[in-house]
Amino acid sequence: MPDTHGSTAMSAAGGTATTTRLLEVEGLTSTYGPVRALDGVSLSAEAGRITAVLGANGAGKTTLLRTISGLVRPVAGRVVLDGEDITKAPVESMVAKGMAHVPEGRGVISELTVDENLRVGALFRGKVDRSEFDRVYDLFPRIAERRNNAAHTLSGGERQMLVIGRALLAKPRVLLLDEPSLGLAPRIVAQIFGLLRQLVDSEGLSVLLVEQNARSALSVADVGVVLNLGRVVVTDSARTLMADEDLRHAYLGF
Amino acid sequence: MDYFVNVTLTGLTQGMIYAAFALALVLIWRSTRIVNFAQGSMAAATTFIALALIQAGASYWVALIVALASGFVLGAIVERVIIRPVEGGPELNAVIVTLGLFVAIQAGIAIIFGSSFQSFPTPFGVRGFEVGDTTIPLTPTSLYIIGSVLIVMALLVALFRFTRVGLAMRASAFSQEVARLLGVKVGGMLTLGWGLAAVVGSLSGLLIAGGTFVWPAYMDALIVFGFVAAIIGGLDSPVGAIVGGLILGLALSYVSGYAPRGSALVNISALVILIVVLLVRPGGLFSSTTARRA
Known about the structure:
The complex is a heterodimer of chains A (254) and B (294). Chain A has one domain: Rossmann fold. In chain A, 37% of the residues lie in helices and 26% in strands. Chain A has helices spanning 6-14, 61-68, 114-122, 130-139, 141-144, 156-169, 186-203, 214-220, 238-243, 245-252, and strands at 21-32, 35-46, 50-54, 76-81, 84-85, 99-102, 174-178, 206-211, 223-228, 231-237. In chain A, helix 3 runs parallel beside helix 6 and helix 4 runs antiparallel to helix 6. Chain B has one domain. Chain B is 74% helix and 3% strand. Chain B has a two-stranded antiparallel sheet with strand order 1-4. In chain B, helix 9 (220-233) packs parallel to helix 11 (262-280). Chain B is globular and about 65 Å long. Chain A binds chain B through residues 69, 71, 91-96, 100-101, 103, 107-112, 116, 119-121, 123-124, 152, 166, 170, and chain B through 164, 167-168, 170-171, 174-175, 177-186, 288, 291-292. Chain A: One of its GO terms (molecular function) is branched-chain amino acid transmembrane transporter activity.
């Protein structure tokens, strides 16, 4: 399997945290026909940390998340969630195992109301106390006002709040976020990332986020993974990546 | 005046049957984006099951329940075994599969139940109620038809609005991938949706058969009108299916009741109505397609 210098850099960034690696991806390879969208990607997401996967369009970021949650089946490699190999587990079982995936384009069910969207997110848990919904509405007062409106009437920022709130109702240990900043005003991005940071710090949530907007992502993340043409180029602490001007110019576009 | 009321009530009654058939098509289209051309012969199959029971001495009501239940099972099996492999593939594949199923089930009915005309009973009379000296043109049979379709529709609305399964079904219909990511067992919901649609389709088949003759292809006329009703309504909207069914039922009843040589014009009128509606609103009256694309 072709290796990159990513794995060596990872041990430097991960430090002592081997036991808290909630999600581990090893040598993941996914293809679309003859195209290798992922080519032996290895990375991990730790509890209480935000891991940002960065890279240009077509680097394989979305495919990475889709392969982790089972929407795309890999041709090689494995996905391990808290010690359990979930590479072949059905997509529908992922939330129950503690992994919530907020897909690209936000994934609101636009024909349902805001409240119904949240209820779908909690369906698999059976009866869920109303107070948990109130907590989501407390986190995002803007969607609370619109709880009985159809979700397609929401603005981009409100949709992002809705899908994050909906994912939280699944009580995940790992949250996968695909381009949460896409199409949002910088102020809204800062607000959503700030909230994410709070949740991670206060509840030990593990976030794996893929972003084209590297600057914003690195400002909130603990660890950064740079992906290029389906391979990991480097894995390091967000601060180190932020300081590496050559790397930023070459892969991150700022 | 009496004649007008009579024609209107006939139209409403027929319209309710078209509406039920159209609703069955819409339920399947919404959840799987497949037009189920086999809906008619599936309904005919369950009607023949009911007829066999009645001929064996069972009451109409027992036969009705068994037929609706077997409609559910048939719909679920069709989805799981025949439709599942072509779901999400090229649209033409699913069309060919449901057309093939339509022919195959119709042939199966002829083989099992014979292809002769057989009379199908109705549980109620077709004479109007009498108030004093006048007979109002409302028959127990038409009340039964309108009432049973309304009850089934109310049950469906309650299922979709107020139950967890209904919410999961709606989520699966609108966005399969998101629903799966949220832990909804989408496959099961689609099977359930096909089963329920087949129940509604079976009901329309049983109702149209009441008091007349059935043969393996007796649903063919209803298939055409049901499709027209569904498309008038927008194919995407349950409310549209019901409104489309009622509009079509009334319009056809007026044509056959008032136009010279009206009954000969019924079929062509259905097509004219379809063309006019599609010219004015290409997506149908209640289509949400434009909103969805925006």
